[in-house]
Amino acid sequence: MLSRSRTAVRTFAASLAVAAPLGAVALAGPAAADTPSGWEDGTPMSTLDVLLIFVGIPVALALVLTLFGYVLARRTKPSYEQYVAGGPQGPPLEASASRAELAGGH
Q: What sections of the protein cross the membrane (predicted)?
């Protein structure tokens, strides 16, 4: 069992690990300032624009990656094919093949 002082130190360290990021966010208030007066206001985005950017682009990217994976999977042969009974060129083994025949006669 841990002593009280070690428990207190661990509690303080855990509290500090939680409080430090919260304090950093709280102190970043000036970063949420308004647009400088010299800049012109931007045009608001329509709902369609927002959907296309935040939904359409990720979905399109996922579809492209999925298609890329399917194309690569169809172009390559499985690496285990040479170890399957019969192999890529050999005749298929009969159902009554013994264990020694399946293991290559060892």
A: 52-73
